[in-house]
Structure formats: C-alpha cells, structure tokens
Amino acid sequence: MPTSENFLIRRLPRTARKHLLDQCALFDLVLSDELSVRGQPLDHAHFPIDGFISMVIDMDGYPELEVGMVGCEAMLGAELLLGATPAPWRALVQGPGHSWRIGAKALRRECATSPALLQVVQTSLLVRLHQQALASACERFHMIGQRLARWLLMSHDRARSDRFHVTHEGMATMLGVRRVGVTLAASELQDCGLIRYHRGELTVLDRTALEGRSCSCYATDRALHQTLFPAQPA
C-alpha cells in the first residue's frame, strides 16, 4: 500500500476526505496504460498518490503532443463536473504508481453534497485550464532544449525520485517534436552534467542547473498552483 497521499484529497476536511475515500478504490497505474480514449467520455476520475499521467493530443497526420501532466498535486477528470463530454485527449500513464479511482457518477454525487470537494475540483480544473494555455504558448515560442528541461522538471516533481524511466521516443512524443531534436537536447544536458541517461533510465544530477535551463513556464506554472492552492496552516 502507498504511504503518501494526493494533495487535493489532503486539503479536504477530515469528514469530507473520509466520505470521498469510501467511494474510491485503490488503482494501479501501470506504465503506458491508457486511462481514457480520445472522443469518449471519461468513466472514472483519478487522484494520483504516486506516479503521473500525461494527457496527449494525437491529431491525424501530426505528431502526438502532451497538453497536460497530472501527479499527486492534482487529479484526472475534474471536467466531469461539466457533464459527460468527450475527452479531447488520451490519458497515458507516464510514471507507474497508484491512484484513488472513483466513478464519474459517484464523483458528481460527492461534489453535489460536499462544498469542500466541489471547490477543490473546480480549482483543480481552473489550474489545468491555465496550464494548458501556458503549454500552448510554450510549444509555439520556446526552444526544444528549454521545453525539455521544463518537462524533465515536471516529471521529476511527480516521480518523487531523482531517477525515472523515460525514452527519447517518449520525450519526443510528449514535446511533439522529432526524436533527433530531443536526442540532441538531452545529450547537451548530459554533457553538462545536469542529467544522466542510460537505456531508458534518466537521473537528475543537478536540479538547480536544470531549472536554469528551463523556460520561464516552469516557474510560472508553479507560482500559479501556489496562488490558487495556498499552503495550509500547519
């Protein structure tokens, strides 16, 4: 059993937290598994405990592109509050772990009876809308090396480990670029001693320097989250 908890669930009052978890089931996040299909409504929401999930757009004739990442700081499925709308993306497990999974109808029912949960889910949805808008601008205006550094920092935050599994092909997919571009950018980071990469295992060696290589979107994203989800009193 995992010993850590999801950030959103932890913010709930004790009674609301217990009631929500009574409706959830512990779910294994298996690397590369798809949790949703593009064009179909979500059946479940996920509150990751560890591991993380990428939301990937795949349009006909164009490379796949990551438009969002969800780890223990957020949830997958906040848009279920809007009704049974088709998902415009695929939800792909990028880092293995566990989540609390709840059915779509059960989540709506809980939100209807728990103002605290409703506020948390609505704020989570607002954060993701901001993040996706920021990601669109980042993809358009920033260089591959900066975007790769940002993506590695985001993955590092959610992996809760200096080491995690990723391939050049996977990074290229997430950034929506050719594999050769990612290979060159990753090689430069490795040559500078910021990361070590070997057979699909990447290790962050110098996080501070990696933050210096990232575009400003990483710091902006973190600041947004801290503004909308201020720290709770100890």
Beta strand %: 15-25%
- What would the average pLDDT be, to the nearest integer? 91
* Structural class designation: alpha+beta
Q: How would you describe the shape?
A: globular
- Distance, first to last CA: 26 Å
Helical fraction equals 40-55%
Gyration radius (Cα, Å) is: 18 Å
Residue windows where pLDDT falls under 50 for at least 5 positions: none
Q: What is the ordering of alpha helices and beta strands?
A: HHEEEEEHHHEHHEEHH
Let me know the number of strands.
Answer: 8
Biggest sheet character: 5 strands, antiparallel
Describe the fold and architecture.
The protein is of the alpha+beta class. Helix content is 45%, strand content 23%. The chain contains nine helices and eight strands. The chain has helices at residues 7-10, 14-22, 104-113, 115-141, 144-159, 168-175, 179-191, 207-213, 217-228, and strands at residues 25-29, 34-36, 44-57, 65-70, 90-103, 163-165, 195-198, 201-204. Strands 1, 2, 3, 4 and 5 form a five-stranded antiparallel β-sheet that branches. A three-stranded antiparallel β-sheet has the order 6-8-7. A hairpin with a 7-residue loop joins strand 3 and strand 4. Helix 3 (104-113) crosses helix 4, helix 5 (144-159) packs antiparallel against helix 8 (207-213) and helix 6 packs across helix 7. The chain is globular. The two termini are 26 Å apart.
